[in-house]
Amino acid sequence: MIIKVALVISTNQIELKEINLDNDEIISKRLDLIGMEDQQINLVLFDESDELDSALGLLKKENKFYPVTSLQALNLSKDSFTQLNATEINTTFQTATQRWILNNNINTIENLYPTINRLKDLWIKDRNSFFEDFWFLIKTNLASTELNIIFHDLKEPTEKQVEKGDKPKLCYSYVQGTRIANLFEGKDKESMLMQEYASEFNDIFNITEYNTERGQLIICAKYELSPILVLAKAPSFNQLQKSLLKSLFLGLNS
What we know:
alpha+beta, Beta-Lactamase, 2 domains, 6-stranded antiparallel β-sheet, 8 helices
C-alpha cells in the first residue's frame, strides 16, 4: 500500500512524501502548492506558525478530498516530521485520517435523510450523476485510497442499430477515480467480478470481505433490483462506518 503525505513548506510549495508501506521506502519531492490539485494525496500537513493566509483558501478546498490538518494538532513540528520513518508517518496518517473520517461520518448521519432523497432523485433523472455522487460519498466516509464501484447499466444502441430495431442492452459500467469519479464502460474484468460475486447480492447490504492487513474492503449490495459491487482500499473499517453504509442502502431501498 502506498500513501502520499504532503507538508506545506511555504505559500507556494509543498514537500510530497510517497511512502511504500510494503517495503518502508520513502520518496520525497518538492512541488508547487497549486499543483496539489493534480496529485493523488492522502494527507496534507501545515505549520500553524507559518504565514499561509494566501494558501488557506486552497487548503480548505482540498480538505474536501482528504485530511488537511496542522502539525501542532498531531503534536509534531516541521523538524520532527522530517525525521519520521515510514511506520511513524503511517501512524500520523492514520491518526489524522480517523479524525477526518469521523467528522465526515457525523456530517453524513446528520444529513442522511436529504442525502438519500437527493440520490433517489438522481437515480431516476441522471443515473451517471447518481453513481458519481454515490462514489464520492463512500470515498469520503471511508477515506479510501482506491475505490471502484461496478454496477448494471444499459448500453444505448446507435442510430443505425435503432433503425434495425435494436434495443438498449444490459451491460456493466464502473466508476473510479482519485479526487472525483470517472465513469467507464465495463470490460471482461468487470463482468467476471460481477459473476464471481453473483451469489452475494441477495441482501440489500453485505460486507463480503475486509482484510485488515491490506485494507481491502468488498461490499455486495443492491438498489432496487440492481446489484452494486464496491471494491475499496480503506485504512480502517469500523462499526460506525458499517452502520452508516448499511443505513444508506436501507434508506435508498425504502
